[in-house]
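#onboarding

Welcome to the new folks! Below is a worked example of what a typical request in this channel looks like: someone posts a single protein sequence, and someone else replies with the predicted structure as tokens. Don't worry about understanding the tokens yet, we'll cover that in week two.

Example request:
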Amino acid sequence: MIMLAEQFREFYHSDERVADEKILQSQDAQVFFDVGDRILFARNTDGWLPGTIEKLNPKRCVVLAADGKRWTVSYMALQHVDESLMDERALRARRLADVAIRARQMMDRHGLRHWSLHFSHGERELGRCQFRDQAILISRNHAVSHAPECVEDTILHEIAHALAGHYAGHGPKWKAIALRVGAIPKSRPYEKNLVEGAARRHLESRDKFRRGDRVSFAFSGGQFVGDIVRMNPKCAKVDCGNRVFSVPYSLLEHRQDIRVLRKGTF
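Example response:
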């Protein structure tokens, strides 16, 4: 079994300053996992237990175990059932480490050597400048998922905030400094597009379904079929006969003339 702690330690020590300043932290191991991954998780008394990731939270994830119980588990206590995924997701970890190195170099070059750098759980907020803590935060998802030029602009955007001061906002002073350091002098051009795009995709997914539709979806290693009994803003309530699930619209597929799966079917 490939140990996540060993893999992550490799990226943690990829650069002396990244390691010394603890830029990469244990919660950044989240990049190795996605919702729906089949995993093993460590419990002190039970050894390794099988389960499926239901939700990714900032520091821990929610895991549905094979016995139906839910656990909140540290990312460092997880292992993939399919070990090939570890190598695939390691590419994300390498990119996160590269962004950390690059961002640290950029901050040093612009006189922010005494400021700290970390990654955040945010998806809509690409970056943040924390004046009280003298820290710049970059979205972890943004760092590993979006074009390098977009990520670099986010870093420079936050550097400009740090140099302009708390009260500058996105006003003339900030814009002048943003131009000087090489950032696009606009308020979150990429973030606005990403949020609008995500909202549009969500509406498109939701509009495909109606109450009463028969749908299927994958969950916890099995394929479930049921009827939509309620349409909520983000998820549909799907009655599968012996259980009602809340399922994001993007995970649903239309099904016709298929019997509802009940306990023991698979």
